[in-house]
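Supplementary material to the annual report.
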Amino acid sequence: MKVTKPSFFVIERPDGATRRCVRLVSSLPSVLKTWGPATRISPIYAVDGTRRNSPLDFLFPGQQTLLMVGPVHPDQFLMACGNPKMMWLGLGLYNLLVIPVSGKQLLGMLAWAKEKSIATEVWTIKDGSIIRPSIAANATPKANDWRDEIASLADLSLPAEICDAIAEYCPLAGSTLSRSRQHLSKFNISNDLRDVNDLVADLLDGLSNKVNAPDGPSTAAYQALGELLTLNAGLSRFASQTFAGISPVQETECHFWSHSALGIGVASLALLRLRRFLETTLGAARLPARIAGLALIRNDIPDLCRLKSTDRFWLADHLNTAHTVESTEEALVPVLTYYSSRDGYRSTSTTLSAPLAAVSACNSMQWSLLTTTHELSHIIVRSVLAEFFPDLDEPKQLQDALALFARKKPAVNLLEEIRRYLLLAVVGMDAIATARNGSLDVDEDKLLGLLDHWHHEVEEILVHTFDFMYFYGRDTDKYVNGIWASWGTIPNVANRVPDYVVRTICAVLSSHLLKGKEAEETAKDQVLRALTSLKDSKIGGPYIKRAIQYIQEHWVDEIQPQVFARKPLVRITVGFLFSQSIATALRSEAAISGDATKNREGYTLKVDRFEFKQIRNPLRFVEFFTTSTTPSALTSMWMMYVLAFCVDANAN
Amino acid sequence: MPTDEPNNLSGYLLEWPSRPVQRSDFLRCDRLTFGGNITDSHWETYVFKSPIPLNQENTDFISGPYIYPIVCRRSGPRVLVLSSHRRIVEHLLSNGFNGTFTPSLRRVSIAVDDLVRALVNRPTVFVLSFVHARAPAFGTALRAVSFYGEDLADASLFRESIMFFNFATCGLRHAVGGTELVRLGGDGAVSFNYSREQRVLEVEDVLRFLSKQGYLSTEIVPGSP
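Predicted assembly:
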């Protein structure tokens, strides 16, 4: 199924009119010239190949019946219900707008939708005026248990600020849950939202008995408040973007104004599918618990500082063989996803956002949904670093770290040895940065200062290497294109280019560790070649030229020493954060053809063709289909449709 | 111009969502003519006349129309369509059948990855003679691998490494011996060496086995969301 050019679905109430009107127009300026307080729009695409070519401009002359139905893949709808007279696709939860051939066909469509618990709304329209909206009831929410849970949160005695936040959260969660039960029962969204509710309950646990503490609300209370506000903001955006445009369509409104009539429910589902896949693969691998299990490896612990890069120890899949240490750790993958212009690509422990621009530009490298993996990598690496780094607020842990640093032989177990190696790496990085020669006398204060100062950089190097290995499959061109194209969209970060260069080369260095002394040079040359290619393609933004120049002019005196000092961090990521078995689960795609000569790694999907073909790995799909240098709203919508409707939910 | 006598047959396993496929459906395509059945079988042969060359013919020496053999096996809504090269079938589907089959014929997915793992874990009358697989964990360092042999699952090197692979194509042969019967792709691709008429019946046995074991699926089931 192909679609033609976009047009706009316009709902408005002209001056003096008693009823709302609807029309399709191909020109946005023509709508803007008559914009009123009740006007709302959404972009839609006419389907090619229905009984008549669905027009771009349509004023609904005479008497017409408009069926809004969804969320459903158009291929499935057409297969079940036959070709209508006209049909358009959009991004709202009512993603299909249909003018049936006859009343009989309409009844068939409604019966099919009812049988499949797919929501519908029908408008009878006379000369563009909506004279009779009719809403088909969906599955009514049955269980009340979640309502009881939400109600119990509102009943807690809490510090005043938290009460305010809970007063906002509870009705928001109630509304989102009940709407998801009505419109997204097939997508199990309510389970995700129940996880959000559990998170909130955990946050509040223990705070309720401290409401009258003599010294006022505790730090923990303010931490909980911060997390609650973050959740509220994310949930509010998710609900507005997803459920705008549900019945009654005339009375809902999305704050993403270019989609204010129908919302972007399909795009929300797409992001949610990605999140679920990550949760069931990388999240389920429980990396921090596996790393904690490295403490159980006590025999034949090598001195990591002296171990050659080619030693088999670095190549072993330690995470796959380590015993998992049971813990009550929270989920590593944030539970809530949404789009945000302000937050862009951002992750917290509970939320993951992608820029709103991705809705109409995710086919391009600059606005790729794959960039969310970098944010996710931060969350995972932070959890992992909690195992490697001492808690700087705990004197005992600092003392232990100091003893580990002073130790001249391997530690007693593998986890401790990695910690020792990391401490030495931090001191090495500091020596390069301060141009210090000779050994450093380190006491507790000095160590505290060093760890505090270098924590962020250690995290960045680990994240970049982790992202490169797990999500980009060590493909240098793809990685450099991906991260530098997305950095190119951020204004005023030119002063960070040297840091970005070092991190990029460190990530790529992970592919060359076996090359010994040639490793750094090879990584540098590979990055330089990829950046030059990116510059030639003109998509990298203003920082590429600066990066190339920086590498060419300062490799020897600035970059190489920094990369060399960070090499132990790269080794730690390769040796102890990467697992071939976990990577296989994360990067597997069984729904591929065997034709190796085709692009797209064997996917048989055709860009912009809305055919229902199932895939199993949404991440690989995004990786192989986000290749354009030019954003396309149509191709982005097609990608959203594949992610929302074609990911085999049983596969993950 | 005589029809090529194909040694290799390649094409796709397809399904029509509307109803069982009939010979008359094929013959609505005016470039197809019926050529008869392969002896003692339900396999049918057709001749496809194409105005454009589809098999790398030298147009300086050979003028059109270009004639290609088409071999089919219909079974209810499913149909196997083969020719001497897969691109001929692809052309027939996208051009010759355009407007003939509405809605269009859909490829039947063959769960090759599941099939290979099952044949390794639970040997049957068929064994693996070939596999091609992606190796996703190793990134650009190692993208894909192929294995050839008379019974791959019997090799420990293969058994121990399958956890790292996504199988996209496989070849099957009888466990008792003989040459490769058929090669299967996840996207419904089917090919085999048409060395003798009996071969089509052996391929039919393989397809029946795949269907019975649940390795065939069409993604559009009428009436299901």
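The first strand of chain A starts at residue 2 and ends at 12.
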